Here is the input.
Amino acid sequence: MREILFVVGEASGDLHAAKVAAALRAAEPERPLVGVGGERMRATGVTLLEHSERLAAIGFVEVLRHVPRHWRLLNTLKARLSSGQVGLVILLDYPGFNMRVAEAAHAAGVPVLYYITPQVWAWGAKRLPKLAAWVSKAAVILPFEEELLRAHGVDATFVGHPLLDRAAELPEPAAARAALGLRPHDPVLAVFPGSRGSEIARHMGPFMATARELVRRHPALQVIVSAAPGIRIDPSACPFPVVRDASFTVLRAATAGLLKSGTTTLEAAVAGLPHVIAYRTSAMSYAIARRVVRIPHIGLVNVVAGREVSREFVQDAIVPARVADALEPLLQTESAARAAALEGLAFVRSRLGTPGASERAAAFARDLVR
Here is the structure.
């Protein structure tokens, strides 16, 4: 029985791949599962060839430091693909590396399932012909991606967003606050500075300054900071409690959130948390992004909505007092701004499909590997 090879480059992909792996393991317990990923994949029985923590990078410039390691890993995977032991490759996001894996798999005659495809609608449209040529099936998680990819010859199907699978497990706000030791009636600001060291380095200063400004205005405000596993936050830079590996509990406990852009904004939509988005990268990466990004928003919640549901502050626009001004009405339970935000987040949730994305992706995998 030939193995299924997963390739994941970061923590969010590890989570989604683990759910696909669990569905595959339940259907075919004897099928060997191997891959590049993290601890969640390992816990579902995937044998790791490389840990994704060693690969994570962000920005056009930062990724250059990881080129030698990526090149060595790519050669290792090419040899495995050529050996005949791989029956299917499942790729999750991480397009800079995974498109090369797709090319190698295609050359070796190994089918490719791309689950959570590159964001060609934002940038990298030149990848569309390559996706059509190298990818056997694309399982997409945003509603507009299926039509876009199919128009360019990619066999794509919208499977829904995997975050919806966690919606049924969300705690009630009161229970989430109790679990985190928060006062039940005072407002709570959740701060999500990022899941990578580079994001923490650039965001902690302005994010903490924003939180302190809001506490100055509203002394009863409670602030909690959500941190990804393995990310160190210097206590001297963060005067507020840090909660690890419990993002949905933090989102459900909070009244409003200050979030870096990315999947966290969709998590907030699922949790029903009004929020403001802020993001800062290196000056060179930002200059490159301004030339290649083709959409008006950076927050996925706004991309899905097709309008600004959550205010965005990028680069030098992250001025703590101004970000605090945007957050302040979201902390007021009866404000018009909060009501509008909640309505917008409900619309986003309605656009994300139905639960079961991982099982649908696993069904495609079983068909392809046969």
In short: The radius of gyration is 21 Å.
